Sequence to fold (200 residues):
Amino acid sequence: MKITSAEFLKSALKEADWPRDKTPEIAFLGRSNVGKSSLINSLLSIRGLARTSSTPGRTQVLNFFLINDKFRFVDLPGYGYARAPKEIKAKWSEAARAYVAKREQLVLSIHIVDSRHEPTKQDLQLHDWLEHYQRQYLTVATKADKLSSNELRRNLERMRRALGREVLAYSSTTRRGQEKIWQAIESALNQSRAEEKGDR
Fold:
């Protein structure tokens, strides 16, 4: 897909503050410091659109970005940051759960895991949420360039067994896996457009 425009729209935590129009959305979900912002920036080839930080827990709200004036990327709060106060973690968790459960504009979720580690308890919980709410989603293992080919292959197989689905290796540095992610995004957007026409 050719990216002609990408702009930050707004940050919001409460559901009442989320955009209300019917623009389809692609959500990026994963634990803190898993590389969500780097993935978004590399997909769009725009450095610094989504804020990246070496400090886990920096994204504490939902960040909405308008792409090509036709669809949105949504960067959700990262989970699993141990130093965050309990009440803050509870708000993050509730906002993410409410988004996955209720958001009608959501056409594809990209569940991001770290290729270097086993899926965490929170990774498994998010997987269960996406299955429970019957959401269309893609599981992407970031930082694939940090591992040797053999290590990456072994880790992806462990993740596949733990999550019960295929996991796509991705690197924001080499752009490995980028084409497959865009294919999934375009397919979800096309399906959304077809369904919208059918409702008319």
In short: Strands lie at 6-12, 25-30, 62-67, 71-75, 106-114, 137-142, 168-169. The chain has five helices and seven strands. The first helix runs from residue 36 to 44. Residues 20 and 105 are 9 Å apart (CA to CA).
